[in-house]
Amino acid sequence: MNQERVFKVLVGPHISEKASVLADGKSQFVFKVAVDATKLEIKKAVESLFSVKVDEVRTVNVQGKTKRTARGLGKRNDWKKAYVSLQAGQDLDFTSSAE
């Protein structure tokens, strides 16, 4: 996988209460990813960007909410998130850069 694709696969970390509990207890991290990203691409992108070993990747397609606007009904975009489990002894730090 080329370096340009690595940066397009991972959109960013998904920060929520559930994601914080998973990160503390089970060494799982949640990312917003590209809709067309595969589990193997996500695994390689996380391993290359953060220098960690990934154990498992689970993905979820999140449907965009339908909202009422002044012009009628509107729909937010669909997106995809990935739950990334790290191998034992591995940890991921978003504040430091991987070099």
TrEMBL record:
Any one of the GO BP annotations: translation
GO-annotated molecular function: rRNA binding; structural constituent of ribosome
Family: Belongs to the universal ribosomal protein uL23 family.
GO cellular component: ribonucleoprotein complex; ribosome
Sorted UniProt keywords: Ribonucleoprotein, Ribosomal protein, RNA-binding, rRNA-binding
Claim: RNA-binding is one of the keywords in the record: yes
Extent of the signal sequence: none
Top-level taxon of the source organism: Bacteria
NCBIfam families found in the cross-reference section: PRK05738.1-3, PRK05738.2-4
Name the UniProt record assigns to this protein: Large ribosomal subunit protein uL23
Physiological role: One of the early assembly proteins it binds 23S rRNA. One of the proteins that surrounds the polypeptide exit tunnel on the outside of the ribosome. Forms the main docking site for trigger factor binding to the ribosome.
Chain ranges passing through the membrane: none
Classification via InterPro entries: Nucleotide-bd_a/b_plait_sf, Ribosomal_uL23-like, Ribosomal_uL23/eL15/eS24_sf
One Pfam family cited in the UniProt record for this chain: Ribosomal_L23
Gene transcribed to yield this protein: rplW
Assembly, per entry: Part of the 50S ribosomal subunit. Contacts protein L29, and trigger factor when it is bound to the ribosome.
HAMAP family on file: Ribosomal_uL23_B
